[in-house]
Amino acid sequence: MEVFENIVAINHRFSLFFLGLLLLLASALSLANAKTHYHDFVIQATPVKRLCKTQNSITVNGMFPGPTLEVNNGDTLVVNVVNKAQYNVTIHWHGVRQMRTGWADGPEFVTQCPVRPGGSYTYKFTIQGQEGTLWWHAHSSWLRATVYGALIIHPREGSSYPFSKQPKRETAILLGEWWNANPIDVVREAARTGGAPNVSDAYTVNGQPGDLYSCSNQDTVIVPIDSGETNLLRVVNSALNQPLFFTVANHKFTVVGADASYVKPFTTSVLMLGPGQTTDVLISGDQTPSRYYMAARAYQSAQNAPFDNTTTTAILEYKSSACAAKNCSSNKPVMPPLPAYNDTATVTAFTTSFKSADKTLVPTGIDESLFFTVGLGLNPCPSNFNKSSQCQGPNGTRFTASMNNVSFVLPSNFSLLQAHHQRIQGVFTTDFPANPPRKFDYTGNVSQSLFQPVAGTKLYNLKYGSRVQIVLQDTSIVTPENHPIHLHGYDFYIIAQGFGNYNPRTAPSKFNLVDPPLRNTVAVPVNGWAVIRFVADNPGVWLMHCHLDVHITWGLATAFLVENGVGELQSIESPPEDLPLC
């Protein structure tokens, strides 16, 4: 018997050794297949004509939108950014985990000082364990209105998509906003007046407004499809300030991914994406060969707030011989119905359909239980301001915004990460409140005394490995609104969403701890709340903010300082030699 047990033990040890050897070989093979991609981004002013008007827009390499970057899971990107424009600039790689490479994340004065005109900086980072659609964009002022592009992450070499049917074609669909003005001038004028900035003049698909706008018919984007094909659309909301509905006439979508994570497939006829979010969908060529409009327009949850109510279009065009025989290219495209601008019911049905493709390891045994209110505010007109020209918010005030009543202020002499790394005092504090300073009826009638937040550069400190839960609560201060909240450096699980005030006694019964979606941007429901969880396993300083750029301009942000763990692999890398100086 003893001999038999010894033989079993030896076999078990050998099996474990053999399994470990296989894993090492697989890892080595994966590394051997990984590639490094080199790109040059020249930031420059370029004449761009839209809506009958030509203006100098800031672009990358003279392209609007900018270049699409394609990599495989496990690859490394090296992007040299040269600034030939008149403005400071940084580039953010939206949704990339940036494990230990926080210096490459990109938000101005958070992880780096800006690249000044005439300067350069090389971003270097590896894509690890992410597949699907992300994107990149400027993270300085409102430059991202025209400085953005898709970042497509294919499966590892030799792997395929986990779909029942592999797509024949892939098309990136970048939804954007266009102003018949310099976006920097638009936000500077709003900062001067204290009022809301002018809304955009058009929405765009891959930089083109589409043929419902003046002077736009000839350049409307054509997306090809053939009868019987299944194609992959990679939809990105790269608009500055507007959540958007997106649909295609007579066609349904099968949603298969979001924010570079796979989801359980589900069918829908309409998407809603907050700025910053991505959604991967399969679309089948199962309709009569013809031309069909792809259309996007606003989801507007804020009450009595001005917004761009126009509709952008592209055209899904069948390329089959049957269509060619009927000269489909001359057909007027079929227009799809679109939800009402304030159709929150459709938004809720869509956003609550997301579930991770596989069972997940949702953090439990929470170490940091946080509650953050998000919303707008109003500052009284300073005594030295001209009330009629500099205080054009409601009732002679100036707009502001906050999390937990703190309106975030970026530093100007150092980046937050640099100040943390070099232990520079006086740049920030780590006393961001874990809960609202005052409890109130968040979604009810709010006292005027709560309208004015406190300005500050306050961070929240997290120990490496902390299991974090955050309740994000919308408020009706000024107006309730759907807020797309983005966390840099992390993906997180959205374990619950609801309306009204979050109730800690009843809400946990709704928590999905089995297969919640993994996202980097959560659309906090208008007059509602969302609960997210993540493990603080990426040291550095990581911005969390509303991705409506007007709101981050007003201070709807905070940042997490995640401490180093034990040893090199749990510590942020040293700053690169060419890191820009302030």
Automatic annotation (TrEMBL):
It catalyses: 4 hydroquinone + O2 = 4 benzosemiquinone + 2 H2O. It is found in: Secreted, Extracellular space, Apoplast. GO terms for biological process: lignin catabolic process. GO terms for molecular function: copper ion binding; hydroquinone:oxygen oxidoreductase activity. SUPFAM superfamilies: Cupredoxins. PANTHER family: LACCASE-5 (PTHR11709:SF431), MULTI-COPPER OXIDASE (PTHR11709). Lignin degradation and detoxification of lignin-derived products. This is Laccase.
